Amino acid sequence: MDQGNKPRLVRDEEVGLVFKTHLDLDRLEALSRDWLKAIGEDPKREGLLKTPKRVAKAWAFLTRGYRESLEEIINGALFEAEGSEMVVVKGIEFYSLCEHHLLPFFGQVHIGYIPDRKILGLSKFARVVDHFARRLQVQERLTTQIAEALWDILEPKGVGVVAEGVHLCMMMRGVEKQHARTLTSAMLGVFREDLKTREEFLSLLR
After folding, report:
1. Which of 26, 129, 132, 190 is deepest in the core (most CB within 10 A)?
2. Which helix (H) or strand (E) holds 18?
């Protein structure tokens, strides 16, 4: 984005979030109303009168990752490392939207890293996961984006990220398989280069 169009912080009181750029809730509401008509519903019937506004607010929340910045999320929560042992944060819940069908997929992300000079406040790992999950995604890209962001933020000796997800586009439609799980991983630094380090990380997840 060029400097002339540099985004500014905008607080959207309707949604209760601070965005880097303005979100057109009115447009989202109008599109939701048109969508209801397109599927054969009557947006004027009692049960649907407020649905377009609710949908607009929901989509603002579910896609807020587009309007956040990592700098704001980290907010100075980097600290001097006192050691270089592996740190693992397991079971970070995520909810995202499949970019192919706009249906949810969700699950857990597990993160490990070996500090060099910096460690990160533990709650920030969940916020980094949400930053990339709250947008249209595929699980493979989500996993890689989390790993690469932590690699850039922490400059560690290594980072490993494993995600496990279930996809409603496989469960509610198409093949309709209810028990399929998708596992993806991204390994950087010593997690990729050193087999023992990678195996230690993976063993801690079992």
Report:
1. 129
2. strand 17-19
**In 10 A of CB 124, how many CB atoms?**
19
DSSP 62: H
Model confidence over 4-39: pLDDT tens digits? 334 444 454 444 444 445 678 999 999 999 999 999
Fold adopted by 3-67: GTP Cyclohydrolase I; Chain A, domain 1 (1.10.286)
Which tens digits make up the pLDDT trace of 139-154? 999 999 999 999 999 9
Do 92 and 108 touch, CB atoms closer than 8 A? yes
Q: Specify the DSSP class assigned to residue 69.
A: -
- Please give the model's pTM, rounded to 2 decimal places: 0.87
91 phi/psi in degrees, rounded to 5: 70, 35
